[in-house]
Amino acid sequence: MKALAPVARSFPFQQPRHQGPFALDLLAYDRIAIVAVGAAISILPVLNPKGPLNVAPVDLIMASGIIAVILWAGASHTGVHAPYVIPLTGLLVTGLVAALVGNAPKTGGTAVIQEIFLLGWCAAITTLVRTPRALRAVVRTWSLSSIVWGVILLLAEAGGVASVPGGSGGLGGRSRLWFDHPNLAGNYFAVAVFVVLATRYPRRRALRIPALMILIAAVALTGSNTALLTLPLGGLVIAFIRFRQRHGTSSALAVVLTLVIATAAAWAALAGTVATVVEDTDAPIVRYSVGRYSKSASSRESLFRTMYELFREGTQIGVGPSATKQALADLDAPVAKQAHNDYLATLVERGPLGVVALVGLIAAIALRAGSIQRLAPRWASVIPNPAALAAVLVGFLLTALTHEVLHYRHFWTLLAVVAALHLYGTQRPIPAAKPLERGFAGNVAGTNDVSGIP
Predict the structure, then answer these.
(1) Sequence-separated contacts (24+) of 297-304 with Cβ below 8 Å
(2) What pLDDT shows up at residue 53?
(3) Alpha-carbon Rg of the chain, whole angstroms?
(4) 8 Å CB contact between 444 and 428
(5) Residue 426 dihedral angles phi and psi, to the nearest 5°
(6) pLDDT digit string (tens) for 189-229?
(7) For residues 165 and 163, what is the distance between their CA atoms, to the nearest angstrom?
(8) Residue 198: which of 392, 6, 363 has the closest Cα?
(9) In this structure, which long-range contacts are made by residues 353-356, counting pairs with CB atoms below 8 Å and at least 24 apart in sequence?
(10) Environment class of residue 51 by beta-carbon count within 10 Å: exposed (0-12), middle (13-18) or buried (19+)?
(11) What per-residue string of b and e applies to 76-115 under the rule 16 or more CB within 10 Å gives b?
(12) From CA 365, how far away is CA 57, in angstroms rounded?
């Protein structure tokens, strides 16, 4: 907590609306809220050991952050914003109905509770970061803590530490620390790369470049192929957005298509050589990452085919959230695993209506990601490279093809930041003033920058 004190002091305290014996308490709520939320963000990787209802240690700190924000919002008469609530309600309702009529009501009910909790976490952050200074405290905490976790992972690997209290590393040569699995660890560090790029923090390039190298090395040590692929894909998205802003959509599409074709041609030419090198290597991390690509792809193809057959032979309601593995086992399927695909999982577990809700969620995210590419000046000083946030969201679309990301805590943290920028930080045109109002036009900034609001 003491380590977060400098960040907390930068938070724009809400001034109490009355003076009296409780005035100091209102100011204290501001500090408590920012410290609690910052503490939860700083320990997002601590997902083990698990407690009842799959509760992780970080969930307890996240819950304290939610409570602190509720107390602050109530004491300061601040409105609470719950972004994405409409599509997520669709997912919750379809999931709850499927859980109640399915063969795994407990598993499905637990998943629905987790989703309600994550919506509360997203709403808490969105409500809290109403000013640029508040957002700065949150995103800088995220950047610095992810770099620290990257250093911890590198030191554990360099020291040959195969296990750490409460979690394990070195699974098949792949590191994961306290994450549930190496792929989740890889995704966390890949997202952190784009958070650092978006915030350009650390501010000094001499520090930021080594920090990015640490995070990229951490991604590599997890051996997650999807996380590794997210990095160049995200870079391509950033390049597209930047080029589009300067030269137009047509030119940007032409450049991107050229790069994609060139990359595909290079891969086709070098694929055989790469496969030979991978087969002959003695490095475990290579064998268990790039080397397992073909086997992993074949396994997932078989799983996805079996899941689709499960949907065709089942009801339109679904088997229930997180119940795919049990449903496949009940049918004596040759492959009985969790879905490993958010799109197909939603169809099988929540039915077609659940897919409609998921599409609505993706559309809501895309709308916000597009709107934040033009930020008001004070907000742009906090997120000088918003294209990086759009890039990592595209990366999540890719990751959802091979993993279930809807329960990733850092995913909903990112969605909260994007929603807050959309609500408070985007530039919007001011309607033309009426004749009697033109005398006040000089006081209009032309944006909805609320950075001056206490």
Answers:
(1) 299/335, 300/340, 300/341, 300/402, 302/334, 302/335, 303/335, 303/337, 303/339, 303/340, 304/341, 304/344
(2) 81
(3) 23
(4) no
(5) -85, 150
(6) 999 999 999 999 999 999 999 999 999 999 998 888 899 99
(7) 7
(8) 392
(9) 353/90, 353/94, 354/90, 354/91, 354/94, 354/95, 354/98, 354/318, 356/90
(10) exposed
(11) beeeebbbbeebbbbbbebbbbbbeebebeebbbbbbebb
(12) 28
Supply 435's token pair: 């004749």
> In angstroms, how far is CA 65 from the centroid of its own chain?
18
How far is the C-alpha of 43 from the C-alpha of 413, rounded, in Å? 12
Work out the mean pLDDT of the chain and round it to a whole number.
81
Tokens, residue 422 = 């959309």
| Length reported for the chain | 454
Q: How many whole angstroms separate alpha carbon 247 and alpha carbon 240? A: 10
Give dist(CA 180, CA 410) in Å, integer.
13
Share of the chain above pLDDT 70, in %: 76
pLDDT at position 392 over 90: yes
Q: How high is the pLDDT of residue 49? A: 86
The type of residue at 440 is F
List pLDDT tens digits, range 60-76: 999 999 999 999 998 88
**In terms of Cα–Cα distance, which of 342, 391, 398, 356 is closest to 370?**
391
How many angstroms separate the CA atoms of 136 and 29, rounded? 18
DSSP states of 420-438: HIIIIIB--PPPPPPGGGG
